[in-house]
Amino acid sequence: MNDPLTFFRKPPALWNCAQSILAAWKDEFGIEDAEIGDFKNYGGGRAPDGVCGALFAANFLLNRKGLASATEHFEKQVGFTTCRKIKGDAHVCCEQCVQTGHDLVRRSLESPMSKENRNLLAMKLKNLKSDVYIPDGIDAEKGLSRTTHLCICAHQDDAEFFAYHGIQECFGHADKWFSAVVVTDGAGSSRADIYANYSDDEMKNVRRLEQRRASVVGEYGAMVQLSYASKDVKDVSNKTVVDDIKTILEIAHPEYLYIHNLADKHDTHVAVAMATLAAVRQLPKNKRPRICYGCEVWRDLDWLNDEDKVMLDVSKRGNLASALNGVFDSQITGGKRYDLAVIGRRLANATFYDAWNSDNVSAITWAMDLSPLMHDDTLSPIAYTTAYIDQFKKDVENRISKFIHP
């Protein structure tokens, strides 16, 4: 933690009030230089609703940790919250506002009531940007440790789309808890309509809040967003991603694990799945998830031979499934009707599963059984996955060969 006044309007950067707050907390919050640069637009009364830039930046930092807004305390100390009123009516100088905003962040983090700060430290997550949210408000480690069904996925909304089976299985049950881990930060999310001009940082905040809302709707045990950039997840030399996933697995100790399948065509999805596999293989054998499902998102798993498919019946609580999908407004209005496509895929999976008999279930998510990879460290993920492809190839060859005309 640094003194913000050493940055405020000082050369060479000449940062404004908002930028100075971020600069002071750069190390503690993992703030990037690009983020500080973006905050040049929030000084001098240019923050939303004319709010003081120092207050805006302070709330930005507190919100990142899931802590309460500093607005009320700031107004009590300074007199007003808008730049125009502070300067014109209260005659408070900018330096005092910067110092007040900085002090409010510090006090909030040091407060014994700052649960989320204690939780992040207790969990020893290496990425300082990580967001830990417990919908029912209990201690984070306790919230995560009650997990029975855990999803580790790449992006906000992935858990709701491919791991709904775990959500419905736990919903309303005191002895079963679904928790989710989103590894990336949402910066690459599509954007259109009201989100069209959002910066990467603004989009990351939108996606983070959407994911939190979904965890409330689904009554999750814990919602962890590790907030890594996609490029860092795909960098196999970056061990912090694996370390953070391992930390979560050690605390959660789930029986069921839902991840991306290894035949997915999205690089980040496969990178997250492989990082999860690496983390699991660092755990003692008796601490590993008993069952691991590799589920479908970008490339469905209908191509698997029927005997190789794992059927996840997701017919229950269609209203809950629709509510969860609908939370992600930024992506739906961003030009991707995931809310319709995901439900449509589940219905199609059920209908086209059996050509000769009536449907026994109304919605299915297909999964690949990845449990052997979790328990046998000698198994190659490449050989294991391509064996399914070989089985599919053999099935196609055999069927065609039966009907070749002489």
Q: Give the helix proportion (percent range).
A: 40-55%
Radius of gyration: 24 Å
Structural class by SSE content: alpha/beta
Q: Characterize the main sheet.
A: 8 strands, mixed
Describe this structure in words.
- With 406 residues, this protein is an alpha/beta fold.
- It has helices at residues 17-24, 26-29, 33-38, 53-64, 71-78, 83-90, 94-110, 115-123, 140-145, 158-162, 164-170, 200-217, 230-233, 240-252, 267-280, 318-326, 329-332, 338-351, 371-375, 381-401; strands at 131-133, 149-153, 178-184, 222-228, 256-260, 291-295, 310-313, 364-369.
- The protein has an eight-stranded mixed sheet, sandwiched between helices.
- 44% of the residues are buried.
- The mean pLDDT is 91.
Give a short overview:
By secondary structure, the protein is an alpha/beta fold. The protein contains 20 helices and 8 strands. It is about 45% helix and about 10% strand.
List the helices and strands and how they pair.
Blueprint: H1 17-24, H2 26-29, H3 33-38, H4 53-64, H5 71-78, H6 83-90, H7 94-110, H8 115-123, E1 131-133, H9 140-145, E2 149-153, H10 158-162, H11 164-170, E3 178-184, H12 200-217, E4 222-228, H13 230-233, H14 240-252, E5 256-260, H15 267-280, E6 291-295, E7 310-313, H16 318-326, H17 329-332, H18 338-351, E8 364-369, H19 371-375, H20 381-401
Parallel strand pairs: 2-3, 2-5, 3-4, 5-6
Antiparallel strand pairs: 1-4, 6-8, 7-8
